[in-house]
Amino acid sequence: MRRWTPPPTTIAASMALALILVACNGAKPTDSGLACDAPVASAGADQTASVGGAVQLDASGSTVCAKLQGAAVYQWAFESVPPDSALDISALSENDSPEAVATGFTPDVPGDYTLRVVVNDSAKESSPDFVVVRVSAGDQAPVADCGPDLAGRIGEALELDGTGSDDPEGATLAYTWTMVEAPSCSALGSDDIFNGAGASPSVVPDCDGIYTVSLVVSDGLQYSEPDICTLNVATNNRAPIADAGESIEFGVCSDNPFRLSGYASYDLDGDELRYLWSVLSAPTGSAVTDTAFDDATTAEPRFTWDIPGTYLFQLQVSDGETWSAPDIVTFAVDGEALNRRPIANAGGDVTVDVEASCESASYVWTCEDCGDVTFDLDGSATFDPDGDRLSFRWTEPTGTIRITNPYGAVTEGWLPGRPSDSSTVYRLDIPVSLEVADCGLQDDDTITVRYSCTGVRR
């Protein structure tokens, strides 16, 4: 932990100049369980990062008084951001929770980002501590996007769309379009792409068939990998369009086998499709072949991989007369990634108040029972820093609550009816826990369901 004075351009500069961090009774709590006067915040060491890269913030080095362990709330906020940044407190962490001991954000422009954290134990609040994240522009390669595959007829202009191309640093892009392949009956080449240096050029096909066009973009320093689009030109039957789905990068929690999907493929004439998947390339040392598919002729086959690395797949579809141009998809399995534990969030405590109607007869009050009641359990704010698929499990140790789907992120709890009378209130405080896990690590969170059944004289 250190003292830091924010720059004068920040909103809270005048107040921050006077802040001094005070340790709890001069030291952190010891195993003796001695209490201290107030918590002490620690925002961690200063960091460096690149635009678009994830920044992790961690206040676990803060001191919390021994008698108050587990009761602390961590309040993160931006003290200052670069002038062109659009970030605010909602950018902190994937679930917009600036009150966790660990959070994070993704910088959008170069410059210095100053953040503060305050620890509040409900009795007292710490002085703020600050961390500076210095973000550089870097120079990552741009990404080309030639838009969707197109279909048309002879003599009709087809307009390509490269406006989805992007540079991570926001540089102005230069576009290069190339006619990679044309039908044997065509005389078209790259020079026949009108406005071939623009973001939205066009091609006028001169015969039926599949035209393959590539786009490469440059930021002035680096060139992108090419992106491939096809132009499907047919006077009568038109060739179908293959879509192998989105490329996926797995961490250490990759499914094996994983599933591919070609369901986005389609035929312009509405013909029924046949599918054919193949392996274009596998990591060095891999022994997989097309036999690693459980069925390479289905729209959604499973593929069993043998070693971590990058696998490249090709999909073609047929309408019974014509095969489509191939579409390519990449699945990458990172066997060396550092798996980070998920963060369980069972939502807030639940209050269930039920009333029963009571009536008097011959000066004797009788009350109806409090009826059955249902309520929501919501763990949807749970997240995994690596984006891994999570499993959920809700538990309630007393057996009082029946949980409709214990393995759902969001489910329903049910409490049976209770007897009541007009003079007492029946109350229960019931703990409910949510446990989440990725392929190797887990976390849990517990909330309290506060139930009351009250007889009300009518």
Task: Walk me through what this model shows.
The structure is a single chain. By secondary structure, the chain is an all-beta fold. It folds into four domains: 124 residues, Immunoglobulin-like (Sandwich); 84 residues, Immunoglobulin-like (Sandwich); 86 residues, Immunoglobulins (Immunoglobulin-like, Sandwich), CATH 2.60.40.10; 108 residues, Immunoglobulin-like, CATH 2.60.40.10. The chain contains one helix and 26 strands. Strands 20-19-26-25-22 form a five-stranded mixed beta sheet, with no helix packed on it. It has a four-stranded mixed beta sheet with strand order 1-6-5-3, with no helix packed on it. It has a four-stranded mixed beta sheet with strand order 7-12-11-9, with no helix packed on it. The longest helix is centred in the first third of the chain and has 4 residues. The radius of gyration is 31 Å and the shape is extended. The termini are far apart. The N terminus is likely disordered.
**Which stretches are poorly predicted, pLDDT < 50 over at least 5 residues?**
1-34
User: What separation lies between the terminal Cα atoms?
Assistant: 61 Å
CATH topology description of the largest domain: Immunoglobulin-like
Q: What would CATH call the architecture of the largest domain? A: Sandwich
Layout of secondary structure:
Layout: H1 13-16, E1 47-50, E2 55-58, E3 73-80, E4 102-105, E5 111-120, E6 129-136, E7 150-152, E8 158-159, E9 174-181, E10 202-203, E11 209-218, E12 227-233, E13 248-250, E14 258-259, E15 274-281, E16 302-303, E17 309-318, E18 327-333, E19 350-361, E20 364-367, E21 373-378, E22 391-395, E23 402-403, E24 410-415, E25 425-437, E26 442-457
Parallel strand pairs: 1-6, 7-12, 13-18, 19-26
Antiparallel strand pairs: 2-4, 3-5, 5-6, 8-10, 9-11, 11-12, 14-16, 15-17, 17-18, 19-20, 21-24, 22-25, 23-24, 25-26
